[in-house]
Design goal:
The chain is of the alpha/beta class. The chain has two domains: 136 residues, Aspartate Aminotransferase, domain 1; 226 residues, Aspartate Aminotransferase, domain 2 (3-Layer(aba) Sandwich). The protein contains 14 helices and twelve strands. It has a seven-stranded mixed β-sheet, with helices on both faces. Strands 9-12-11 form a three-stranded antiparallel β-sheet, with helices on one face. Strands 1-10 form a two-stranded parallel ribbon. The protein is globular. Bound molecules: pyridoxal-5'-phosphate.
């Protein structure tokens, strides 16, 4: 193949650091996975209503789904106090990260994000020909406001994008910090606020980010997902709330028209209705992250504070080696590959048994070291 065929922006991208599927794990390591803690999935799974809704919807799959995703957009508008024409549905929220970049970025544009960060915030922008400034978290894991403001002052970005609570680090931005950041953000910059882990926030850390955004001059997009607290990672459905119907409508053109399948829509609608299951999932995560962080800290590992369903910790060595050694004990976690965090890894809160397998495996490795 002629190497010139590939756009240089794509050729330069790394392969996405995805978690390992269970059948691939078994095929490669020849053992069963005891604890799959590498992809921030919900160990409680989806609510029972989701499985019934998918079964019921399956009878109709010979038909294309509604390209406008009308029913789910109506449900989400009611749930979020917005209008359906501000909502956009994606094949996972990652689909919407790509769509928003394709909608607004021109080659040479500037994008500001934080570091460590969710990979697609950077790679999606690079794929569109933008250049990305990644601002490292402060040493105490507060959001790097000064650095972000400096980066935006040096060159006004087309897009400011970051997640809060943050993946992979775990902390959440406070309302005061968010207000200060917005105040210093150029008015024309699109603020993409990724709330994939919103549901896991402790009550004291919650604030109405949408109201804050709506009160300011910026265009904005909030991203959320059904993959985490709702337990639907496998069916792929996420959503965005746009500042204005026109942004959602323009993004719809940058997305595949039938990219969100009928089973995913049925699943998401059912998941939204079961608030008890959501509360149970969030409770499990809150208990589990405290448990994991306590035991890891007692064992001498430095952990970042977490408002999510995972804990980011310093393995004290090469994280890929640490994760590989755990794999041989049937435990999957995600080593971080982004400089300067290549000694850090992220472990998802699993079932109590999975958490125990992980901690026992870490302890066994420490004893052997
Ligand atoms: C911060 C953040 N945003 C977006 C996503 C994408 O989620 P999905 O495409 O499953 O909705 C993830 C997944 O891990 C994430 O951590």
């Amino acid at each position: 193949m002629n190497p010139d065929l590939i756009r240089p922006e794509i050729a330069a991208l790394p392969t996405y650091n995805a978690g390992l599927a269970l059948d691939r794990f078994r095929a490669h390591y020849g053992i069963d996975c005891l604890a799959k803690l590498d992809s921030n999935e919900n160990p409680a799974g989806p609510c029972p209503g989701v499985v019934e809704a998918i079964r019921a919807e399956a009878a109709g799959i010979a038909r294309y789904p509604d390209a406008g995703n009308g029913a789910l957009r109506e449900d989400l508008a009611a749930a979020t106090g917005t209008t359906a024409d501000q909502i956009i549905i994606g094949n996972g929220s990652e689909d919407l990260i790509g769509a928003v970049f394709r909608t607004v970025l021109r080659p040479g544009d500037h994008v500001v994000t934080i570091c460590p960060s969710f990979g697609l915030h950077e790679f999606g922008a690079l794929a569109s020909g933008a250049h990305v400034t990644k601002v490292p978290f402060n040493a105490d894991w507060t959001f790097p406001l000064d650095g972000m403001i400096r980066a935006m002052t040096a060159e006004a970005p087309r897009v400011l994008i970051f997640s809060s609570p943050s993946n992979p680090a775990g902390p959440a931005i406070s309302e005061t910090e968010f207000g200060a950041l917005l105040k210093a953000t150029p008015a024309d910059t699109l603020v993409v606020f990724d709330e994939a882990y919103l549901e896991y926030l402790e009550p004291a850390a919650r604030f109405d980010a949408m109201a804050r955004l709506a009160a300011g001059p910026h265009p904005w997009l909030i991203l959320r997902t059904f993959s985490k607290a709702y337990g639907l990672a496998g069916v792929r459905v996420g959503y965005g709330i746009a500042c204005a119907p026109d942004l959602a409508a323009q993004m719809m053109k940058a997305r595949n028209p039938f990219g969100v399948n009928a089973l995913a829509v049925a699943a998401a609608r059912a998941a939204l209705r079961d608030t008890d299951h959501l509360a149970l999932s969030v409770g499990l995560a809150a208990e589990g992250r405290a448990h994991l962080a306590r035991h890891l800290s007692e064992a001498g590992f430095v952990c970042a504070p977490s408002q999510t369903n995972f804990v980011f910790f310093d393995t004290g060595g090469v994280a890929t080696d640490f994760a590989e050694a755990l794999r041989h004990r049937g435990v999957l976690i995600k080593p971080w590959l982004e400089d300067p965090f290549t000694s850090w890894a992220r472990v998802t809160v699993g079932t109590p048994d999975e958490n125990r397998y992980f901690l026992e495996a870490v302890e066994a490795m420490r004893v052997l070291a």
